[in-house]
Amino acid sequence: MEDLLTSLNTTSIASDISNTTTNTVSSVKNIDTITNSTTSTTTTTTPTIINSENDKDILIPALLSSELISNSKNSMIKQSKEKGRYVVAKQDIKSGESIVFREEPYVVCMNYKDPYERKICHHCFGLSSTTSKSMTTTPDFTLHCDTCNIVWYCSNHCQLNDLIYHKHECFTYKRMQSSSQFDTSCKTSIKLLLKLIIKQYLEIKDQSLSLNPSSSIESKEVRFKDILTLETNLNKFSTQRITEFRMISKFIEKTMDKEFLKVICPTNKEVIEFQNNLIKLMCILECNSHDISFTIPQSTKSSYEYFSIGIGLYYHSSMFNHSCTPNICKVIESKQHPQPISTEKVQYSGNFATHSMIAIKDIKKDEEISFNYIQVTLSKVDRLKKLESSYHFQCKCPSCIGDVNNKASIKSHSQFIEKHICKSKTGNCSGILFPLNDNLICNICRPIILK
Ligand SMILES: C[S@@+](CC[C@H](N)C(=O)[O-])C[C@H]1O[C@@H](n2cnc3c(N)ncnc32)[C@H](O)[C@@H]1O
């Protein structure tokens, strides 16, 4: 996960795995005077349907199971005092088998002021062109919200379906742009936080949760109350950081419309609960969110460009602990793999925010299943530092417990690097190799053909 909100410090799990990940320390300046708002409006532009490839089927890596952890045949969740909840194999798992198959995020957002924000649909995360070999030549969308000018869409359909969220976030987005108290990465975090509380609002409004039309990429099964059970590491955050979180919380309270807040917190008691929840949610985002990214091939077949475009929160994927010698890796959805890798055809949900967790080696029954939140090629000292500063924990994986100079652990870690890390000449991608038929494919720089 690198790259969760570190921005607050925007770091999200697994964003670290790419060399393009940013981990900016955001500064939250003094609160501006923010006027209370009672309305949040969204104006839509003239509907122009952009030619989109979103309805195409795609082939994605051959995966054996289509079940999420909650009802998974091959894994289950356990708990320990030292590492909290963790996932273990219920049975022997073969290399290449999926542990989590195509998980969609509970909430997801584009980075604030992302350079490609006009080329990726803010609702379905589809690209504006599936043929362009370069993001610079990929055309901009024309459909957008012209009140905030922050969200862009591939189609009228996506714009309409996103309205259920956007009508509640638009005003805060607008105020955020003129506010100098938060930096860019902090504003990305605020965007994701808004999505979370809008989700809470919608769940309260419609307990049956038939709220999100079929094109939405967000998971329908997981509920807000489940998200609140995710790890916070609350007592590991500095007082200064919690003060920053409180400033964000105040900003949100002042900019969200009153009707909206009344639904979430109808009484004073619930107002306090809401304020505390916001702090808790910011900690949850920092410890659990994932980087949203994808790769596209450049003009020469041997080079690929990696784009980190947003952050998302996944419930099932948040159950995995980190290991510096992981036995699974995260595989990001692609449009079409160069060679058909499976006869299994999956309906394309049109986004890069969907991912799967795949075994990179055989896993024995009862063994812990974990992936890497950060680049495992870093030295042990640097890995420990990074995990502590970005994710607020002291790593207790087999490579990290014990003496820094322990020869056996240094040796097994370097054997892991030798066998499972991509050695692509196209850059030090440090991706993890996962098996696909008889090949090994890098989860970061693997060739993806956008057709
Ligand atoms: C994404 S959550 C993983 C699930 C978590 N254990 C839970 O109970 O919800 C990340 C958190 O799990 C714990 N964790 C993950 N990997 C760990 C490791 N290698 N050593 C110690 N704690 C770890 C840390 O508290 C970390 O912030």
UniProtKB/TrEMBL annotation:
One Gene Ontology term, aspect cellular component: nucleus
Lineage top rank: taxon: Eukaryota
Keywords of this entry: Metal-binding, Zinc, Zinc-finger
Keyword Metal-binding on entry: yes
PANTHER family xref list: HISTONE-LYSINE N-METHYLTRANSFERASE SMYD, SET DOMAIN-CONTAINING PROTEIN
Domain SET: 73-374
SUPFAM superfamilies listed in its UniProt record: HIT/MYND zinc finger-like, SET domain
Annotated GO MF terms: zinc ion binding
Pfam families on file: SET (PF00856), zf-MYND (PF01753)
Role, per record: Probable methyltransferase.
Protein name: SET domain-containing protein
Residue ranges occupied by any MYND-type domain in the UniProt entry: 121-170
Keyword Membrane: no
Organism: Dictyostelium firmibasis
